[in-house]
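Deadline looming. Please check this record:
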Amino acid sequence: TGMWAEREVIGPGECTLLHWDVPDAEGVRVVGPGTDSSMIMPPRGDLEVCPEATDWYELKGLEWENLSRVQVTVGE
């Protein structure tokens, strides 16, 4: 359970898919560059992200508690 990136290292201008699976959650929020943290997502899903620089994405519960996090590295 938790969140993981399909590709944790991407090149400039590239995107990757974040996947998560938190079976016991009613819903989750994905927080990080290019995401809408106010949007409640299903407990299992994926989201394409295209960070411009290396950064963290966090998976949070409905009460903003930390569930998981993953770093996406933007290489040369």
